[in-house]
Design brief:
Blueprint: E1 37-43, E2 51-53, E3 55-60, E4 63-68, E5 73-77, E6 89-97, E7 103-112, E8 121-126, E9 131-132, E10 138-139, E11 148-149, E12 153-156, E13 159-162, E14 168-178, E15 186-195, E16 214-215, H1 241-252, H2 259-263, H3 269-273, H4 279-288, H5 307-315, E17 320-325, H6 329-337, E18 342-349, E19 366-377, E20 383-386, E21 398-401, H7 403-414, E22 417-422
Antiparallel strand pairs: 1-15, 2-5, 3-4, 4-15, 5-14, 6-13, 6-15, 7-8, 7-14, 9-10, 11-12, 12-13, 16-19, 17-22, 18-19, 18-22, 19-20, 20-21
Helix pairs in contact: 1-4, 1-5
């Protein structure tokens, strides 16, 4: 039996801030969970260690990147990477430019502790472009591949899971680049977060590292402002927690789509009636949706919660984006102190008899899967968040959540998954 994925999808310079009484982050902090986590990325000089098939390294602004040579298709394959301990869950993310209709495909091959190797799994096909068709439908080269499994494990949308009682000893990633005419994609980073979810055992709430409140000025956006807009994407804006969170990050870094980009989006009766307000959220959803995500009944959902697609979208605007995992809010505090807000994924239910999965003060009673922006912490370590699940609108998006509740539902259901989106200058 295979482990079922825990989540159900629902939908530059750092801004100068005044940080009050910032303490240094302790690397020896006790964790709220003891889950083994391995994070690795290939970029810059590390790209040269891979193998090239009709691809080459170029200089792209201040970064090295992989691109095609004289062929319309080629690949780059990483060296084998061995985490410090065996893992059973893997998520890959990437940073790429895909001009025109060019696109890339990120693949994963694992080697088990038994020595058995998998085939090459597709972890995602990515292209920034989306095309509005004459019949009103929208297509894109972007899409996950459903139904992938072999004797080692399986892929659920954007995540590889090893079979029960099976562990990965090492893995390789491969980027397959596809040109479209003269348009050639480039890839400047591939990152992988891997963990052993069977050891996701909480050891209590982490102690805060904060010595004073830090509250980054992240602009506030509510997904509910976009209710019923572009309903072909995840049923419409009320489910767009992930693109709304990413849009808030881009606003914070003073980048993102232009007003002309937003005006150029296809017509939508609700969006247009709403005068395209906060159109950066719709633009994100339009360029993030997963064209390959399929529901159990066989229908395609155009889901907007694909983790790697969201950070790839942010990276399109010159930011350093990756999917990562942490064992404690102390790690998130470290980013906040650097001026970097963090998107987290979690779920809660305030309506059932189980009080251990509550989130007091939330604007909605429950969710099977949700993302929001952690913008800061109070002096006692409670979480200050821009929660896009705020039906009353943008002005009420800022929430303060109890640290113990927040950390528990983030670790228990989502194994500490986050989006890190930052300027390259911040390490």
């Amino acid at each position: 039996m295979k482990y079922g994925k825990l989540i159900q999808r629902t939908g530059l310079a750092v801004t100068a801030v005044s940080l009050i009484a910032i303490s240094s982050f302790s690397a020896t902090a006790s964790a709220a969970s003891q889950m083994p986590i391995s994070y690795n990325e290939w970029n810059g000089r590390q790209l040269e260690d891979g193998s090239f098939d009709h691809t080459r390294i170029i200089r792209e602004q201040d970064h090295k990147a992989i691109t095609l040579g004289y062929h319309s298709e080629g690949s780059w394959t990483s060296p084998e990477y061995r985490p410090s301990t065996p893992v059973n869950k893997i998520v890959a993310s990437w940073q790429a430019q895909t001009p025109g209709q060019s696109w890339i495909e990120t693949q994963l091959q694992v080697k088990l502790t038994t020595g058995q190797k998998s085939g090459w799994y597709t972890m995602g096909k990515w292209g920034f472009a989306s095309t509005a068709n004459p019949d009103g439908s929208i297509t894109s080269p972007r899409g996950s591949v459903m139904g992938q499994e072999d004797a080692t494990g399986s892929v659920d949308q954007d995540t590889y899971f090893a079979n029960d009682d099976t562990f990965v000893q090492s893995y390789r990633v491969r980027e397959v680049l596809h040109a479209n005419g003269q348009d050639k994609p480039t890839v400047r980073q591939v990152a992988v977060t891997a963990s052993d979810y069977t050891k996701n055992i909480e050891t209590g709430t982490s102690a805060t590292t904060m010595l004073g409140q830090v509250d980054l000025p992240v602009p506030m956006l509510s997904q509910y402002v976009h209710n019923n807009e572009y309903s072909q994407f995840d049923g419409g804006g009320a489910a767009w927690c992930s693109p709304t969170s990413v849009a808030m990050l881009l606003d914070y870094y003073h980048t993102g789509p232009s007003q002309q980009d937003i005006r150029d989006l296809p017509a939508d009766p609700v969006f247009d009636t709403n005068h395209r307000v906060d159109g950066q959220v719709d633009y994100a959803a339009y360029h993030i949706f997963d064209n390959g995500y399929q529901l159990e009944d066989g229908h395609f959902d155009k889901n907007t919660g694909n983790w790697p697609y969201n950070v790839a979208y942010a990276s399109k605007f010159g930011l350093d984006g990756s999917v990562r995992q942490y064992n404690s809010l102390r790690d998130v505090e470290g980013w906040i102190k650097k001026g970097v807000p963090v998107v987290v994924t979690l779920k809660w239910n305030n309506t059932d008899a189980d009080t251990t999965n509550d989130l007091t003060g939330s604007s909605i009673p429950s969710t099977a899967g949700h993302l929001m922006v952690v913008r800061g912490f109070t002096a006692n370590g409670d979480v200050i968040a821009n929660d896009p699940a705020t039906p009353s609108g943008d002005r009420d998006v800022r929430h303060v959540y109890n640290r113990a509740q927040f950390e528990h539902i983030w670790l228990k259901a989502k194994q500490g998954t986050v989006y890190i989106v930052k300027p390259y200058s911040v390490k």
